[in-house]
Design brief:
The structure holds two protein chains of two kinds.
Chain A: H1 10-16, H2 20-31, E1 34-35, H3 36-46, H4 55-67, E2 71-79, E3 82-89, H5 91-115
Chain B: H1 2-13, H2 19-42, H3 47-58, H4 61-73, H5 77-95, H6 102-121, H7 129-135, H8 137-159, H9 166-192, H10 196-203, H11 205-218, H12 234-253, H13 257-282, H14 288-309, H15 317-325
The chains are: A alpha+beta, B mainly alpha.
Chain lengths: 120, 326
């Protein structure tokens, strides 16, 4: 599957809005300390190309999560010239992620129930 | 990398954040682009094209800077609480008519000045700017109350045939004027290099105070005055400063820059209308639209100043050290 969310895909963008933070939190929790560029690549890889986030989406979102205390950023290893900023999830972030995942699973389960044709 | 550097410079010019945060953001983006271009070049894309492609994928500098601004600019409720305090102090002085008691005014001003100095030394957090604005109020009062004396003494010195004792006071006042103006200019220039909007936020109460002080000076009222005319403004000033307090809370809690600009512009116009009616009564030529136009012009002067001086505060020494280590 090689599709991307583009400007004309209003439905997908609407669905993604409000869930970007959850995606980022989940991947940061799973991957351990990770920096923005690898996060963007990981999102694309795991979604099989469906999500291709821009830097303009990911980095401000990461900074906002850090402001809220859900992730912690630290200057870490270097790549050639510049140090990279790596993000790891905090205890508060784990709680928020668990709550959001619960809500998401309840939401999708309810949607799946409704969207199935009724028997009989 | 030249193209990337130009792109990052454009982002930085639009960030309007404190210098350490701006430095951190640009540094992070630099490492991102370095890595992305390395991957693209490994995939066979020529360097110039890889830079263009990386920038295209990133989006416009304007929208990227706007999103970083929204991520970082919002103050906490604690910031909003601190920012509203000088407005509440000012409104309390008018509600209780204590502005006519020198001890009360000195205590209020002393508290405002101490907090302003403390916050300035701590890197100018968001909540500081109203405190700095109010700390300029004695400058405004001194100039209004002394201007007649200074004018008469200066004329006497220039046209007179001998030096009089009052000329020493003239020199003292002129020295004070120079000091006040220097401090205000220094503060405005430092703040405008971060964000012109913060200058407008900082200076918001001064036109209100200036109008009031000019009327008080005109009717000859002073501390311990028994002149009832001196207190006729108090209700209106109380309401105006409460309004400015609310504006401060909203300003700090709003994320989007365009709403902040609209809020301050509306506050500037509203405050002018609230207290400016007295000016209209005594002026033979000013009309309300002219007064509002003057208020908006004053509000936008910091924007012009930033355009002239450029954006970009020096970063703190500790960050300069780590930058050199990179």
């Amino acid at each position: 599957m090689e599709r991307t969310i583009d400007a004309s895909d209003g439905n997908a963008k609407e669905l993604l809005r409000g869930n970007t933070d959850s995606l980022l939190l989940f991947l940061i929790a799973e991957s351990g300390p990770i920096h923005g560029y690898h996060l963007i690549k990981e999102i694309k890889r795991r979604s099989q190309g469906y999500f291709q986030f821009r830097e303009g989406t990911v980095y401000p979102a990461l900074h906002k999560l850090e402001q809220e205390g859900l992730v912690e950023g630290n200057w870490g290893d270097r790549l050639a010239g510049h140090a990279r900023r790596c993000y790891s999830i905090t205890a508060k972030g784990r709680e928020a992620l668990a709550s959001r995942l619960r809500s998401w699973r309840q939401f999708t389960a309810a949607m799946d129930l409704i969207l199935q044709p009724e028997q009989g | 990398m030249e193209r990337i550097n130009l792109y990052l410079k454009e982002i930085k010019s639009r960030l309007h954040l404190d210098p350490n945060t701006e430095f951190s953001i640009i540094r992070e983006l630099e490492s991102h682009f370095e890595e992305e271009m390395a991957d693209l070049e490994q995939a066979g894309v020529p360097p110039a094209a890889s830079a263009e492609q990386a920038i295209r994928c990133s989006g416009s500098a304007h929208s990227l800077a706007r999103m970083f601004y929204e991520a970082h600019s919002q103050g906490t409720w604690a910031d909003a609480f601190l920012a509203v305090q000088p407005h509440l102090i000012a409104s309390a002085l008018f509600l209780t008519h204590l502005w006519a008691k020198p001890l009360a005014v000195m205590a209020a001003f002393g508290a405002v000045l101490l907090v302003a100095l403390y916050g300035w030394a701590r890197g100018r957090p968001n909540w500081l700017y109203p405190w700095v604005g109010y700390s300029f109020s004695p400058f405004v009062a001194t100039i209004f109350f002394s201007r007649d004396f200074v004018y008469r003494s200066a004329v006497d010195l220039i046209l007179g045939s001998r030096i009089a004792p009052s000329h020493a006071w003239l020199l003292l006042f002129l020295g004070l004027y120079a000091l006040f103006i220097g401090l205000v200019v220094f503060s405005v220039v430092r703040v405008v290099k971060r964000d012109w909007l913060l200058v407008s936020f900082m200076l918001l109460p001064l036109p209100v105070l200036g109008v009031w002080i000019s009327d008080i000076a005109r009717i000859g009222a002073q501390f311990h005055t028994a002149n009832p005319a001196a207190f006729r403004w108090d209700g209106r000033m109380f309401v105006t400063f409460l309004m400015l307090g609310l504006v401060s809370v909203l300003f700090l809690r709003l994320r989007r820059r365009i709403w902040r600009i609209a809020l301050l512009a509306a506050a500037c116009v509203s405050a002018t209308i609230l207290v400016g009616s007295r000016i209209l009564e005594i002026s033979g030529f000013l009309t309300l639209p002219m007064l509002v136009g003057l208020a908006l012009f004053t509000f936008l002067v910091p924007a012009v100043l930033e355009w002239i001086l450029g954006h970009g505060e020096p970063i703190q020494a500790s960050e300069q050290g780590s930058r050199a280590a990179d």
